[in-house]
Amino acid sequence: xxxxxxxxxxxxxxxxxxxxxxxxxxxxxxxxxxxxxxxxxxxxxxxxxxxxxxxxxxxxxxxxxxxxxxxxxxxxxxxxxxxxxxxxxxxxxxxxxxxxxxxxxxxxxxxxxxxxxxxxxxxxxxxxxxxxxxxxxxxxxxxxxxxxxxxxxxxxxxxxxxxxxxxxxxxxxxxxxxxxxxxxxxxxxxxxxxxxxxxxxxxxxxxxxxxxxxxxxxxxxxxxxxxxxxxxxxxxxxxxxxxxxxxxxxxxxxxxxxxxxxxxxxxxxxxxxxxxxxxxxxxxxxxxxxxxxxxxxxxxxxxxxxxxxxxxxxxxxxxxxxxxxxxxxxxxxxxxxxxxxxxxxxxxxxxxxxxxxxxxxxxxxxxxxxx
Length: 371
Description:
Elements: E1 2-5, H1 20-28, E2 32-36, H2 47-52, E3 56-58, H3 60-66, E4 69-71, H4 78-81, E5 89-92, H5 100-109, E6 112-115, H6 130-147, E7 169-173, H7 177-188, E8 192-197, H8 200-210, E9 215-218, H9 221-230, E10 233-236, H10 251-256, E11 262-265, E12 286-289, E13 292-295, H11 305-326, H12 328-334, H13 336-339, E14 342-345, E15 348-349, H14 352-358, H15 365-370
Parallel strand pairs: 1-2, 1-4, 2-3, 4-5, 5-6, 7-8, 7-10, 8-9, 10-11, 11-13
Antiparallel strand pairs: 6-14, 12-13, 14-15
Helix pairs in contact: 6-7, 11-12
């Protein structure tokens, strides 16, 4: 199969769909790989490294016109969507639920779009989302701590305090991969941490993991309000796979929080879980609403692009090899976990949550693949 990797063009996005190591694996199995010029240069992966393992260096137009499969990191921007063609495979993060225009363009293109974030694994895990969730969870505390500094608009609070001065209070809403990693970092920096979640078994796991050093509280409207109003930092770490994130902090609660507090919305690529959230970029990451600093960067892992690229490739490479080796239809039909990642198939929506959120007809993946 001819596989293409375009350079990411989203603001301050330096990750790359395939590393030289991943390309080497694909070439070993007889596949051809074209990498856009300087696609990995931003994280120290040169064109020479790619050519040494058998890749061809080309331009974006050549990749989109010639390649059978496009492997990316972030969702295609609108002009990239217009370069996609019928029956071409697109394998990347998509986050379609909050993005009706991208969805429409993908449907019009006739592309077969498989979303990293809805590919599943054992016990309903999300193996291609997990590595970036780990990165984003840890980064959320790093970014939030910086935003708490007075020069950044925050209250001038040091996350861990010092002897004689109490540490900051950090609320993490959601105890999944993002929330666990956020709590791990916040606790490591000396903050007083509370995790809210609606799963009692998960709360028990987290309580055991942290040995009582983190408060694990059942999430209700009341507890969200109580702990948010007392917090110096709130991290939104909720996920409904494929669907728009629920709004858990209202504008009213935000307005009543301590002035100079910080909210970090890790769910922003699925529409955000705070009513006052809107996507920002690494170039201009924060804004203030009612005296509360909002950090809502939609591609947070791009800030540590080299680490993120390596972690992502570890997870995606087996699926890329399967799609390239078996062909798209066979790979999807024989692997339910990969099939769960199919969001768009040649003009049809094949993920239920996306169809529901954007008011499209839902067609099950098995049905469209059989047809």
